[in-house]
Amino acid sequence: MNNPLSSKKQPTFIDLFAGIGGIRIAFERNGAKCVYSSEWDKDCQTTYEANFGEKPDGDITKVDPNSIPDHDILTGGFPCQSFSIIGKREGIRDTRGTMFFEIEKILKAKQPYAFLLENVKQLVTIDNGQTFATMMAKLKDLGYFVHYKVLNALDYGVPQKRERVLIVGFKQNHPFKFPDKSLTRLTLEDILEAEESVDKKHYISEEFTQKLAKKVTNLYNYSTIWHENKSGNIGIHEYSCALRANASHNYLLVNGKRRLTSRENLRLMGFPDDYKMVVSHAAIRKQAGNSIVIPVIQAVAQEMMRALAQEPIEKSEEVRENPVVQEELWSEPLHV
Protein backbone atom coordinates (compact mmCIF):
# COMPACT_ATOMS: atom_id res chain seq x y z
CA MET A 1 0.00 0.00 0.00
CA ASN A 2 1.17 3.51 -0.81
CA ASN A 3 1.97 6.08 1.83
CA PRO A 4 -1.31 8.02 2.35
CA LEU A 5 0.55 11.33 2.28
CA SER A 6 2.56 10.58 -0.86
CA SER A 7 -0.25 11.69 -3.17
CA LYS A 8 -1.11 14.70 -0.98
CA LYS A 9 -4.63 13.38 -0.48
CA GLN A 10 -6.49 13.63 2.81
CA PRO A 11 -5.62 10.58 4.94
CA THR A 12 -8.58 8.45 5.97
CA PHE A 13 -9.06 6.51 9.21
CA ILE A 14 -11.52 4.26 10.99
CA ASP A 15 -12.60 4.73 14.59
CA LEU A 16 -12.89 1.34 16.33
CA PHE A 17 -14.13 0.94 19.91
CA ALA A 18 -15.00 4.57 19.31
CA GLY A 19 -16.55 5.42 22.67
CA ILE A 20 -17.62 9.04 22.39
CA GLY A 21 -15.18 9.96 19.65
CA GLY A 22 -12.08 11.26 21.43
CA ILE A 23 -9.70 9.62 18.97
CA ARG A 24 -11.79 10.90 16.08
CA ILE A 25 -11.48 14.49 17.30
CA ALA A 26 -7.70 14.07 17.68
CA PHE A 27 -7.20 12.75 14.15
CA GLU A 28 -9.61 15.21 12.53
CA ARG A 29 -7.63 18.02 14.12
CA ASN A 30 -4.62 16.59 12.27
CA GLY A 31 -6.38 16.74 8.91
CA ALA A 32 -7.58 13.14 8.61
CA LYS A 33 -11.09 12.05 7.58
CA CYS A 34 -13.10 9.38 9.40
CA VAL A 35 -14.75 6.90 7.03
CA TYR A 36 -16.11 4.35 9.52
CA SER A 37 -16.85 3.98 13.23
CA SER A 38 -17.85 1.14 15.52
CA GLU A 39 -19.08 1.21 19.15
CA TRP A 40 -21.42 -1.25 20.86
CA ASP A 41 -22.51 0.83 23.90
CA LYS A 42 -25.93 2.39 23.26
CA ASP A 43 -25.36 5.55 25.32
CA CYS A 44 -22.02 6.09 23.58
CA GLN A 45 -23.72 5.64 20.21
CA THR A 46 -26.24 8.31 21.18
CA THR A 47 -23.53 10.76 22.26
CA TYR A 48 -21.39 9.98 19.19
CA GLU A 49 -24.29 10.53 16.78
CA ALA A 50 -25.22 13.84 18.44
CA ASN A 51 -21.68 15.14 17.98
CA PHE A 52 -20.62 13.66 14.63
CA GLY A 53 -23.89 13.15 12.77
CA GLU A 54 -23.49 9.40 12.37
CA LYS A 55 -24.37 6.38 14.47
CA PRO A 56 -21.46 3.93 14.82
CA ASP A 57 -21.83 0.32 13.83
CA GLY A 58 -22.53 -1.94 16.78
CA ASP A 59 -20.66 -5.03 17.97
CA ILE A 60 -17.44 -5.24 15.95
CA THR A 61 -17.32 -9.02 16.42
CA LYS A 62 -20.38 -9.24 14.18
CA VAL A 63 -18.97 -7.01 11.42
CA ASP A 64 -17.40 -8.58 8.33
CA PRO A 65 -13.93 -6.97 8.08
CA ASN A 66 -14.21 -6.92 4.28
CA SER A 67 -17.31 -4.72 4.54
CA ILE A 68 -15.37 -1.95 6.28
CA PRO A 69 -14.37 0.86 3.90
CA ASP A 70 -10.77 1.09 2.72
CA HIS A 71 -8.74 3.37 4.98
CA ASP A 72 -5.20 4.58 5.53
CA ILE A 73 -5.08 4.45 9.32
CA LEU A 74 -6.81 2.15 11.80
CA THR A 75 -7.37 3.59 15.27
CA GLY A 76 -8.83 2.12 18.44
CA GLY A 77 -8.70 2.26 22.21
CA PHE A 78 -9.59 -1.38 22.56
CA PRO A 79 -10.95 -2.93 25.78
CA CYS A 80 -8.42 -4.48 28.11
CA GLN A 81 -10.56 -6.71 30.35
CA SER A 82 -10.00 -9.90 28.40
CA PHE A 83 -6.23 -9.44 28.52
CA SER A 84 -6.33 -8.84 32.26
CA ILE A 85 -8.31 -12.01 32.86
CA ILE A 86 -6.09 -14.11 30.63
CA GLY A 87 -2.97 -12.52 32.10
CA LYS A 88 -3.96 -13.74 35.56
CA ARG A 89 -4.22 -17.28 34.25
CA GLU A 90 -1.89 -18.80 31.70
CA GLY A 91 -1.06 -16.05 29.27
CA ILE A 92 -2.32 -15.12 25.85
CA ARG A 93 -1.18 -17.92 23.57
CA ASP A 94 -3.96 -17.11 21.13
CA THR A 95 -5.65 -13.76 20.50
CA ARG A 96 -9.05 -15.31 19.74
CA GLY A 97 -11.66 -14.27 22.25
CA THR A 98 -10.03 -10.86 22.81
CA MET A 99 -10.81 -7.54 21.13
CA PHE A 100 -7.24 -7.42 19.84
CA PHE A 101 -8.23 -10.36 17.63
CA GLU A 102 -10.86 -8.16 15.96
CA ILE A 103 -8.20 -5.55 15.23
CA GLU A 104 -5.91 -8.25 13.90
CA LYS A 105 -8.62 -9.51 11.54
CA ILE A 106 -9.28 -6.02 10.17
CA LEU A 107 -5.58 -5.26 9.72
CA LYS A 108 -5.20 -8.50 7.81
CA ALA A 109 -8.27 -7.94 5.63
CA LYS A 110 -7.89 -4.22 4.87
CA GLN A 111 -4.10 -3.73 5.13
CA PRO A 112 -4.15 -0.07 6.22
CA TYR A 113 -0.84 1.74 5.95
CA ALA A 114 -0.71 2.67 9.64
CA PHE A 115 -2.48 2.20 12.96
CA LEU A 116 -2.74 3.68 16.44
CA LEU A 117 -3.90 1.61 19.42
CA GLU A 118 -4.38 2.64 23.05
CA ASN A 119 -4.69 0.60 26.23
CA VAL A 120 -3.92 0.61 29.96
CA LYS A 121 -0.22 0.63 30.81
CA GLN A 122 -0.51 -2.75 32.57
CA LEU A 123 -0.97 -4.37 29.17
CA VAL A 124 2.81 -4.19 28.71
CA THR A 125 3.62 -6.09 31.89
CA ILE A 126 0.79 -8.56 32.64
CA ASP A 127 1.73 -12.23 32.42
CA ASN A 128 5.42 -11.22 32.67
CA GLY A 129 5.11 -9.43 29.34
CA GLN A 130 4.01 -12.52 27.39
CA THR A 131 0.64 -11.04 26.41
CA PHE A 132 2.26 -7.94 24.97
CA ALA A 133 4.98 -9.98 23.26
CA THR A 134 2.28 -12.04 21.56
CA MET A 135 0.60 -8.87 20.32
CA MET A 136 3.88 -7.49 19.00
CA ALA A 137 4.56 -10.77 17.19
CA LYS A 138 1.12 -10.65 15.57
CA LEU A 139 1.64 -7.08 14.37
CA LYS A 140 5.11 -7.98 13.09
CA ASP A 141 3.68 -10.93 11.16
CA LEU A 142 1.22 -8.54 9.52
CA GLY A 143 4.17 -6.54 8.20
CA TYR A 144 4.15 -3.51 10.50
CA PHE A 145 7.01 -1.56 12.04
CA VAL A 146 5.83 -0.98 15.59
CA HIS A 147 6.55 1.71 18.19
CA TYR A 148 5.15 1.82 21.71
CA LYS A 149 5.42 3.97 24.79
CA VAL A 150 3.56 4.68 28.02
CA LEU A 151 2.46 8.32 28.10
CA ASN A 152 1.02 10.31 30.99
CA ALA A 153 -1.79 12.79 30.32
CA LEU A 154 -0.21 15.16 32.87
CA ASP A 155 2.58 15.73 30.37
CA TYR A 156 0.23 16.80 27.58
CA GLY A 157 -1.65 19.71 29.02
CA VAL A 158 -4.43 18.30 31.19
CA PRO A 159 -4.54 18.18 35.02
CA GLN A 160 -5.07 14.44 35.23
CA LYS A 161 -2.61 11.64 36.01
CA ARG A 162 -3.60 9.02 33.45
CA GLU A 163 -0.99 6.64 32.07
CA ARG A 164 -1.72 4.65 28.92
CA VAL A 165 0.34 2.67 26.44
CA LEU A 166 0.22 3.97 22.85
CA ILE A 167 1.09 1.55 20.05
CA VAL A 168 1.83 2.95 16.59
CA GLY A 169 2.59 0.98 13.45
CA PHE A 170 3.55 1.71 9.82
CA LYS A 171 3.87 -0.51 6.75
CA GLN A 172 7.25 1.08 6.09
CA ASN A 173 9.95 2.15 8.55
CA HIS A 174 9.15 5.83 8.87
CA PRO A 175 11.26 7.91 11.31
CA PHE A 176 8.58 8.17 13.99
CA LYS A 177 9.07 9.45 17.53
CA PHE A 178 6.59 9.95 20.33
CA PRO A 179 5.76 13.59 21.14
CA ASP A 180 7.75 15.65 23.59
CA LYS A 181 6.08 16.75 26.79
CA SER A 182 3.96 19.88 26.65
CA LEU A 183 5.50 22.98 28.18
CA THR A 184 2.18 24.10 29.64
CA ARG A 185 -0.64 22.44 31.53
CA LEU A 186 -4.15 23.50 32.47
CA THR A 187 -4.82 23.76 36.18
CA LEU A 188 -7.86 22.41 37.97
CA GLU A 189 -9.06 26.01 38.17
CA ASP A 190 -9.12 26.04 34.36
CA ILE A 191 -11.44 23.06 34.07
CA LEU A 192 -13.84 23.82 36.93
CA GLU A 193 -17.23 25.37 36.30
CA ALA A 194 -18.24 28.50 38.18
CA GLU A 195 -19.58 27.45 41.58
CA GLU A 196 -22.81 29.40 41.14
CA SER A 197 -23.61 27.34 38.03
CA VAL A 198 -23.01 23.93 39.64
CA ASP A 199 -26.16 21.99 40.44
CA LYS A 200 -26.62 21.38 44.16
CA LYS A 201 -26.92 17.64 43.51
CA HIS A 202 -23.15 17.50 43.09
CA TYR A 203 -22.45 18.72 46.63
CA ILE A 204 -21.87 16.38 49.56
CA SER A 205 -23.25 17.02 53.05
CA GLU A 206 -21.55 19.47 55.41
CA GLU A 207 -21.23 16.64 57.91
CA PHE A 208 -19.29 14.53 55.42
CA THR A 209 -17.12 17.50 54.46
CA GLN A 210 -16.14 18.06 58.08
CA LYS A 211 -15.43 14.36 58.53
CA LEU A 212 -13.03 14.40 55.59
CA ALA A 213 -11.44 17.67 56.65
CA LYS A 214 -10.40 16.15 59.98
CA LYS A 215 -8.19 13.70 58.06
CA VAL A 216 -6.40 16.44 56.15
CA THR A 217 -3.15 17.92 57.44
CA ASN A 218 -2.68 20.73 54.90
CA LEU A 219 -5.24 22.90 53.15
CA TYR A 220 -4.43 25.10 50.17
CA ASN A 221 -5.84 28.33 48.82
CA TYR A 222 -6.12 27.06 45.25
CA SER A 223 -8.46 24.52 43.69
CA THR A 224 -7.69 20.94 44.63
CA ILE A 225 -9.00 17.42 44.18
CA TRP A 226 -9.47 15.41 47.36
CA HIS A 227 -8.94 11.68 47.08
CA GLU A 228 -9.55 9.15 49.85
CA ASN A 229 -7.43 6.05 49.33
CA LYS A 230 -8.14 2.47 50.42
CA SER A 231 -6.49 3.12 53.77
CA GLY A 232 -8.88 5.96 54.49
CA ASN A 233 -6.21 8.66 54.11
CA ILE A 234 -7.07 11.86 52.30
CA GLY A 235 -4.70 13.20 49.68
CA ILE A 236 -5.04 16.70 48.25
CA HIS A 237 -3.70 17.29 44.75
CA GLU A 238 -3.42 20.04 42.16
CA TYR A 239 -4.45 17.50 39.54
CA SER A 240 -6.87 14.61 39.32
CA CYS A 241 -5.98 10.96 39.48
CA ALA A 242 -7.29 8.91 36.53
CA LEU A 243 -11.02 9.12 36.00
CA ARG A 244 -12.68 5.73 36.21
CA ALA A 245 -15.65 4.44 34.29
CA ASN A 246 -17.20 3.25 37.54
CA ALA A 247 -17.19 4.98 40.94
CA SER A 248 -15.39 8.15 39.85
CA HIS A 249 -18.10 10.08 41.69
CA ASN A 250 -17.25 8.32 44.95
CA TYR A 251 -13.60 9.21 45.34
CA LEU A 252 -12.93 12.58 43.70
CA LEU A 253 -14.06 15.76 45.44
CA VAL A 254 -13.48 19.35 44.36
CA ASN A 255 -12.07 21.21 47.37
CA GLY A 256 -13.58 18.51 49.57
CA LYS A 257 -17.09 19.79 48.87
CA ARG A 258 -18.57 18.32 45.71
CA ARG A 259 -18.31 15.81 42.88
CA LEU A 260 -17.17 16.68 39.37
CA THR A 261 -19.90 17.86 37.00
CA SER A 262 -20.50 16.33 33.59
CA ARG A 263 -18.67 19.15 31.82
CA GLU A 264 -15.73 18.94 34.23
CA ASN A 265 -15.40 15.20 33.59
CA LEU A 266 -15.22 15.87 29.86
CA ARG A 267 -12.81 18.78 30.27
CA LEU A 268 -10.43 16.54 32.20
CA MET A 269 -10.33 14.31 29.10
CA GLY A 270 -9.66 17.29 26.80
CA PHE A 271 -13.12 17.52 25.20
CA PRO A 272 -14.09 20.99 23.97
CA ASP A 273 -16.89 22.94 25.62
CA ASP A 274 -19.05 22.75 22.49
CA TYR A 275 -19.16 18.96 22.79
CA LYS A 276 -22.81 18.02 23.19
CA MET A 277 -23.99 16.21 26.31
CA VAL A 278 -27.25 14.39 25.49
CA VAL A 279 -27.32 11.54 28.03
CA SER A 280 -27.55 11.39 31.81
CA HIS A 281 -24.82 12.59 34.17
CA ALA A 282 -24.16 8.98 35.21
CA ALA A 283 -23.70 7.97 31.56
CA ILE A 284 -21.38 10.92 30.82
CA ARG A 285 -19.30 10.12 33.89
CA LYS A 286 -18.90 6.55 32.65
CA GLN A 287 -18.15 7.70 29.10
CA ALA A 288 -15.45 10.11 30.30
CA GLY A 289 -13.84 7.42 32.44
CA ASN A 290 -13.72 5.05 29.48
CA SER A 291 -12.48 7.65 27.00
CA ILE A 292 -9.04 8.71 25.86
CA VAL A 293 -7.37 12.04 26.67
CA ILE A 294 -7.67 13.99 23.44
CA PRO A 295 -4.47 16.11 23.74
CA VAL A 296 -2.38 12.93 24.15
CA ILE A 297 -3.79 11.27 21.04
CA GLN A 298 -3.69 14.55 19.13
CA ALA A 299 0.03 14.92 19.87
CA VAL A 300 0.75 11.33 18.81
CA ALA A 301 -1.35 11.72 15.66
CA GLN A 302 0.62 14.85 14.77
CA GLU A 303 3.87 12.92 15.07
CA MET A 304 2.41 10.16 12.88
CA MET A 305 1.61 12.71 10.18
CA ARG A 306 5.13 14.13 10.45
CA ALA A 307 6.59 10.65 10.10
CA LEU A 308 4.44 9.88 7.07
CA ALA A 309 5.65 13.10 5.42
CA GLN A 310 9.22 11.76 5.56
CA GLU A 311 10.81 9.09 3.44
CA PRO A 312 10.99 5.64 5.05
CA ILE A 313 14.31 4.51 6.46
CA GLU A 314 16.02 1.91 4.32
CA LYS A 315 15.41 -1.60 5.59
CA SER A 316 18.51 -3.24 6.95
CA GLU A 317 18.82 -6.98 7.33
CA GLU A 318 18.44 -6.55 11.09
CA VAL A 319 15.20 -4.60 10.71
CA ARG A 320 13.82 -7.18 8.28
CA GLU A 321 14.27 -9.74 11.01
CA ASN A 322 12.84 -7.58 13.79
CA PRO A 323 10.48 -4.84 12.63
CA VAL A 324 9.57 -3.81 16.17
CA VAL A 325 11.95 -0.95 15.64
CA GLN A 326 11.34 1.13 18.72
CA GLU A 327 10.49 -0.42 22.04
CA GLU A 328 10.04 2.43 24.48
CA LEU A 329 8.49 2.12 27.90
CA TRP A 330 8.59 5.29 29.93
CA SER A 331 6.50 6.48 32.83
CA GLU A 332 7.33 9.29 35.21
CA PRO A 333 6.85 8.06 38.80
CA LEU A 334 4.04 10.43 39.80
CA HIS A 335 1.89 9.27 42.68
CA VAL A 336 -1.64 10.13 43.69
Structural summary, described in words:
- α9 (262-268) packs parallel to α10 (281-290).
- This protein has two domains: 12-184 and 291-327, Rossmann fold, CATH 3.40.50; 188-274, no CATH class.
- It has twelve helices and twelve strands.
- With 336 residues, the chain is an alpha/beta fold.
- Mean pLDDT is 87; it is low at 84-91, 316-322 and 325-336.
- The strands form three sheets. The protein has a seven-stranded mixed β-sheet with strand order 2-1-3-4-7-5-12, sandwiched between helices. Strands 9-8-11 form a three-stranded antiparallel β-sheet.
- The protein has helices spanning 22-28, 42-52, 81-87, 99-110, 130-141, 188-191, 206-213, 248-251, 262-268, 281-290, 294-308, 317-321; strands spanning 12-16, 33-37, 73-76, 114-120, 145-152, 160-161, 163-170, 225-228, 234-237, 240-241, 252-254, 326-327.
Order of helices and strands: EHEHEHHEHEEEHHEEEHEHHHHE
Query: Class of the largest domain, according to the CATH hierarchy?
Result: Alpha Beta
Calculate Rg over CA atoms. 21 Å
Number of helices: 12
Uncertain segments? 84-91, 316-322, 325-336
User: What value does the average pLDDT take?
Assistant: 87
CATH architecture of the largest domain: 3-Layer(aba) Sandwich
For the sheet with most strands, the description reads: 7 strands, mixed
Spatial shape = elongated
Strand content: 15-25%
Q: Could you tell me the number of beta strands?
A: 12
Structural class based on helices, strands and sheet pairing: alpha/beta
For the terminal residues, how far apart are their CA atoms?
45 Å
What portion of residues is helical? 25-40%
How would you name the CATH homologous superfamily of the largest domain? Vaccinia Virus protein VP39
Strand order of the largest sheet: 2-1-3-4-7-5-12
